[in-house]
Amino acid sequence: MKDKKIVLLVLFALSNLSVHGAQDPIELKVSAAKRGLLLGSITLVKHLRFNVDKGQYISNLVNNYDVVVPDVEMKPGHIWRPRNIYNFTDVDWLLGATPDTMG
Ligand SMILES: *[C@@H]1O[C@H](CO)[C@@H](O)[C@H](O)[C@H]1NC(C)=O
Fold this sequence. Notes:
Number of helices: 6
Shape: globular
Strand content: 5-15%
Distance between the termini: 42 Å
Helix content: 40-55%
Keywords: Signal
Bound molecules: 2-acetamido-2-deoxy-beta-D-glucopyranose
Largest sheet: 2 strands, parallel
Radius of gyration: 18 Å
Strand order of the largest sheet: 1-2
Signal peptide: 1-21
Structural class: mainly alpha
Number of strands: 2
């Protein structure tokens, strides 16, 4: 099973090279969409909340990915401290965010 995934990944990469040529950037989001796939990335929510790089980071995420997954913000160490007191500030913000409201 693992070998099949590796083979598919290599074939996917090679098919993109043959379509776009070695000189062109590989537009993974476009290639994924053509195959009915969503492309995602992990991110630190604080990079979005506090608009690092004056919007460049958010712009790159929006332009290159369909899905964003929080990095540590959904892990117990981040939301559950101290004991029995929860803080969902970052993930609540992410769930309410859209590309237009970020930054
Ligand atoms: C809750 O989380 C936010 C975002 O990480 C942080 O700024 C805030 O200080 C936290 N609140 C408490 C009471 O720890």
